[in-house]
Design a protein that fits this description.
Strand content of chain A: 25-35%
CATH class of the largest domain in chain A: Mainly Beta
Mean pLDDT of chain B: 92
CATH superfamily of one domain in chain B: YVTN repeat-like/Quinoprotein amine dehydrogenase
Oligomer: heterodimer
Shape of chain B: globular
Shape of chain A: globular
Low-confidence stretches of chain B: none
Keywords (chain B): Nucleus, Repeat, Ribonucleoprotein, WD repeat
Organism (chain B): Acacia crassicarpa
Number of helices of chain B: 6
Structural class of chain B: alpha+beta
CATH class of one domain in chain B: Mainly Beta
CATH superfamily of the largest domain in chain A: YVTN repeat-like/Quinoprotein amine dehydrogenase
Helix content of chain A: 25-40%
Family (chain B): Belongs to the WD repeat DCAF13/WDSOF1 family.
CATH topology of one domain in chain B: Methylamine Dehydrogenase, Chain H
Strand order of the largest sheet of chain A: 2-29-28-27
CATH architecture of the largest domain in chain A: 7 Propeller
InterPro entries (chain B): Sof1, WD40/YVTN_repeat-like_dom_sf, WD40_PAC1, WD40_repeat_CS, WD40_repeat_dom_sf, WD40_rpt, WD_repeat_DCAF13/WDSOF1
Strand order of the largest sheet of chain B: 3-4-5-6-10
Largest sheet of chain B: 5 strands, mixed
Subcellular location (chain B): Nucleus, Nucleolus
Radius of gyration of chain A: 28 Å
Number of strands of chain A: 29
CATH topology of the largest domain in chain A: Methylamine Dehydrogenase, Chain H
Number of strands of chain B: 31
């Protein structure tokens, strides 16, 4: 996504020379190639080599065509906000933006004040055209944001904790006091999902048609909304939580727990795929970047951390509370706490998120939910006094694809799309941490290194540990005896993984030997197998 | 401050009038499509399933003969016509599109054993066990307007009676010569009442003959002494002979690689040979459980069809060890002759139950006019299936064929026998002096010797 932002800045600087254009095209081709091609030189099978090289050529050709189409044929350019002189982008107020933009866009700035029924949860459809609203006190509604038309609102007279659209705007699910209900566009109750229990958060996996929920008892449920089958029902065992987010890249559900851990789940395994300690204190919010490599977590320990999900490492830590987090399609990160909203952006393109925009609501408004509207430069805000919407230039993807998500969809197209998406419905097994694994070959098992090499490895690691310089510390912590002790500890730490590996191997071989011993013994002696023989 | 936000007016993105087409906008960015590979896999799976749903290869049977079909010939000059000869001496010309007899050629006293059409499509040559060769004028393709009820019959141009019964005939590519086989190989000319050349090698009768499509003077025959012989008409004696363990019932040259031919063998396998190198088969095509009776190459040269005594028709890739397709019906009996149509899209089989059957060469292909969008969709599905063909689920669905119970049982029995034989050989090898037992590959195992 970083390079996408890059491209946009390039485009604005008016690439005049041919070289600039070709550089830009190269960047785009990289994006459309979806990774490097395989190394065909190592292949010995000539026939296979020929076939694969033909295929590689095809891939590169289609990437080139897509890049060219992207460069020249897309109808609209992305939004941006640039400061001039001593201005700072984060000091620019919504009123100032409203003066500069066209009337159509300035209509996207509004506050709807409904003080009795808040705080509000909100959710957009994937095309960004419709919004579902759920007021805590039982107010449910659907709004058509294109012509600002309230399609339906009704009062369920019990607590509503979350709402989510199903595969299109015709159906939405609401997590209410006791059960979860599915309503249609006219507010008719279609289903009551009793099995989910008192649900705190709902998420819909639109590729899989799965409705995921986490309830008060920390149980995670997956229900297939096409067949009604309960696909998965897992106890997290980590207590009550209302922090839940689906990774749009691979469909894995992440939960943030009060112990500071984040766990990731798939519907086909009862144990979490990943369990990572993110914060010293409860996790308060979670968000995923759409490219799947980036996760943002916020904790009650007054920290917001950005994680690289390829390495499971923090690459940036920010200070601040956040009740809610959200990534936009172009990679801006919004977080809200109390009545203020911060929007961060990766402006330099080097994975360094810095302040991009800020916004303060009227004092006393408590923000409960932030969500960027897809394909628009708009941030939706659900808060204790209703809901609002502000402009965040450069947050949305400017070009939609009619076959993916179409804001101007007619009812006929919607019907067509429903059928198509049902045909392409993915089975729950396709949810995995790395979705590009499908259709690839399992890598060959690692060969055991010979003993000598292994010892050399240990020696090298020990030498490397010895070379590390100790920091000079005060108050007697740098005494020679302490230094020696520390060095010893460091060496032990380096050696440990090697020793553990060795122990594991030994355990396996011991087990094997035991089995073979048992087999070789005559039947009458078998009961003595495994016991040490006393001679 | 410079600021721009996305703003879309509905006029630009929707159609102007209700009879316009809806506007389509594309964005090929991979980041707005998640889990592309999984989606592709599911589509490939669906494509494979759809293929199975639409696999209806049988188009129809052509009924009319009153005895088993013994031979067929396709008209190289006319796509819809096919000739068939039966055991009672009846020869018929069929119109494939209406599946009716166009014309009958009466005259043979015994079984018709061979039919061939000249390359220009004018002359039909037939021969049979009544020791006669008959030449017929092929009627011009028009009489369908008269209706199927009036089957007109033709008179032979000439009848040549010879010394022995005939087993097969084939016409030269682009010339006037044709070859008949029986007790010997005779080369005839349209205008001569006696063969212009005769070949003999051994005393057993020759049962099939095929001219090489690339080299008009070259022909291959198979004989009941289990041999395959190559002849060059420019020489006075046969060129080369190869003897196998079992008889070759029929053979066919690959029209695109005319130096290769495939032999349909009595042991249920087909063997592809390079005519220059007869000591080893290029490929062994296994799958039939009984003698393969006839074989014919597709004009594309990429696949061939075989008919077998086990009552099935199979289609093989020219280089594939196992069949791509198996066709069978409850009523189809022993298949004696098969032909690929001249446009490579149909297969015709003639069997013991007096019927000709018409099959699609590609079981799930859509017949009739295919619109460009449909064509694109089919191509996409093909590409998907090809890409994910190695994944177990897709592979299972694509490979699955329903087999008649006798075939299924015979297959498993034959597999068990082959496994047992293999096991025994391995044990024998393990218990004898190293190097004293050599296992020959199947490509050479069935060949006894090659004679120059």
């Amino acid at each position: 996504m970083a390079e996408v932002l890059d491209n946009d800045t390039l485009a604005r600087d008016k690439p005049s020379t041919e070289k600039d254009i070709s550089d830009e095209l190269d960047l785009k081709i990289q994006k459309y190639l979806r990774g490097e091609g395989g190394n065909l030189e190592v292949l010995t099978d000539k026939k296979l080599k020929g076939q694969l090289s033909v295929r590689e050529e095809l891939y590169s050709k289609s990437a080139k065509v897509a890049a060219k189409a992207d460069k020249w044929l897309v109808p609209s350019e992305g939004g941006y906000l640039e400061a001039e002189g001593i201005e700072k982008t984060w000091r620019i107020k919504q009123e100032a933006i409203a003066k500069e933009v066209d009337i159509l866009s300035s209509r996207n700035q509004y506050d709807i004040v409904l003080p009795e029924l808040g705080p509000y949860a909100l959710q957009f459809t994937s095309s960004g055209r419709y919004m579902a609203l759920g007021g805590r006190k039982g107010h449910l509604g659907i709004v058509d944001l294109m012509n600002m038309n309230l399609i339906k609102e009704f009062q369920v007279r019990e607590t509503v904790r979350d709402v989510t659209f199903l595969h299109n705007e015709l159906f939405f699910a609401a997590a209410q006091k006791k059960y979860t209900y599915i309503y249609d566009r006219h507010g008719t109750e279609l289903h009551c999902l009793k099995e989910h229990g008192p649900v705190l958060r709902l998420q819909f996996l639109k590729n899989h048609f799965l409705l995921a929920s986490i309830n008060k008892f920390g149980q995670l449920h997956y229900q297939d909304v096409t067949t009604g089958a309960m696909v998965g029902n897992f106890r997290t065992g980590l207590g009550r939580t209302d922090v839940m987010q689906v990774n749009p890249f691979n469909g894995v559900v992440a939960l943030g727990h009060s112990g500071g851990t984040v766990t990731m789940w798939k519907p086909t395994s009862s144990a979490p795929l990943v369990k990572m300690l993110c914060h010293h204190g409860p996790v308060s919010a979670l968000a995923f970047h759409s490219n799947g490599h980036l996760m943002a977590t916020a904790g009650k320990d007054k920290k917001i951390k950005l994680w690289d999900l390829r390495k499971y490492e923090v690459f940036q830590t920010l200070h601040g509370h956040a009740n809610t987090l959200d990534f936009s399609q172009k990679g801006l990160l919004a977080y809200g706490t109390g009545s203020s909203i911060q929007v961060l952006g990766d402006l330099s393109g080097s994975q360094n998120y810095s302040r991009y925009m800020t916004h303060s609501m009227v004092k006393g408004y408590q923000i409960s939910k932030l969500m960027f509207r897809p394909y628009e430069d708009v941030l939706g805000i659900g808060h204790s006094m209703g809901w609002s919407s502000i402009l965040i230039p450069g947050s949305g993807e400017p070009n939609f694809d009619t076959w993916v998500a179409n804001p101007f969809e007619t009812s006929k197209q919607r019907r067509e799309k429903e059928v198509r998406s049902l045909l392409d419905k993915l089975p729950p097994e396709t949810i995995m941490l790395d979705p590009s694994k499908i259709g690839t070959v399992k890598p060959a098992q690692k060969e055991k290194k010979p003993k000598k090499e292994r010892e050399a490895d240990i020696d090298a690691a020990v030498e490397a540990a010895k070379d590390i310089k100790m920091k000079k510390k005060t108050k007697g912590r740098s005494k020679p005896s302490k230094k020696v002790k520390k060095m010893k500890e460091a060496i032990e730490k380096v050696k440990r993984p090697f020793l553990e590996e060795k122990m594991k191997e030994e355990a396996i071989s011991r087990k094997k030997r035991k089995i073979s011993e048992e087999v070789s013994l005559p039947k009458s002696l078998k009961r003595f197998a495994g016991k040490k023989l006393a001679i | 401050m410079k600021v721009k936000v996305i703003s879309r007016s509905a006029d630009e993105f929707t159609r102007e009038r209700s009879n316009d087409l809806q506007r389509v906008f594309r964005n090929y960015d991979p980041s707005i499509r998640s889990q592309e590979k999984a989606v592709e896999y599911v589509r490939a799976l669906n494509a494979a399933k759809l293929d199975k749903i639409f696999a209806r290869p049988f188009i129809g049977a052509m009924d009319g003969h009153i005895d088993a079909i013994s031979c067929m010939a396709k008209n190289p000059n006319h796509l819809k016509g096919i000739f068939s000869g039966s055991m009672d001496g009846d020869i018929r010309l069929w119109d494939i599109s209406s599946r009716r007899t166009v014309c009958q050629f009466p005259g043979h006293q015994g079984a018709v054993r061979g039919l061939a059409v000249s390359t220009d499509g004018q002359i039909l040559v037939s021969c049979g066990t009544d020791c006669s060769v008959r030449l017929w004028n092929v009627p011009v393709a028009a009489p369908m307007e008269l209706g199927g009820s009036t089957e007109n019959s033709a008179e032979p141009i000439s009848v040549y009676v010879w010394k022995n019964a005939f087993w097969g005939v084939d016409h030269e590519w682009g010339g006037e010569r044709f070859a008949t086989v029986g007790a010997q190989v005779d080369i005839w000319n349209h205008n001569r009442s006696q063969p212009i050349q005769s070949f003999e090698w051994g005393s057993d009768s020759v049962i099939s003959v095929r001219f090489n499509p690339g080299e008009p003077d070259l022909l291959a025959t198979s004989a009941s002494d289990r041999s395959i012989t190559l002849y060059d008409l420019r020489q006075s004696s046969p060129v080369r002979k190869m003897i196998m363990m079992t008889k070759t019932n029929s053979l066919s040259w690959n029209p695109r690689e005319p130096l290769n031919f495939t032999a349909a063998n009595e042991d249920g396998n087909c063997y592809s040979y390079d005519a220059r190198k007869l000591d080893e088969a290029k490929c062994v095509h296994k799958d039939h459980v009984s003698a393969v009776m006839d074989i014919d190459y597709s004009p594309t040269g990429r696949e061939f069809v075989t008919g077998s005594y086990d009552r099935t028709v199979r289609i093989f890739q020219y280089n594939g060890g196992h069949s791509r397709e198996i066709y069978h019906t409850k009523r189809m009996q022993r298949v004696f002759c098969v032909k690929f149509s001249c446009d490579a899209s149909y297969v015709i089989s003639g069997s013991d139950d007096t019927n000709l059957r018409l099959w699609k060469a590609n079981a799930s292909e859509q017949l009739g006019v295919v619109l460009p969008r449909e064509r694109k969709k089919h191509d996409y599905h093909e590409a998907l299936k090809n890409r994910y063909k190695y994944l177990p689920e897709v592979k299972r669905i694509v490979r699955h064929r329903h087999l008649p119970k006798p075939i299924f049982k015979a297959t498993s029995l034959m597999r068990a026998m082959a496994d047992a034989r293999k096991r025994k050989d391995e044990r024998r090898k393990a218990h004898s002096a190293p190097g004293s037992i050599k296992t020959k590959p199947l490509r050479t195992r069935r060949i006894i010797k090659e004679v120059e």
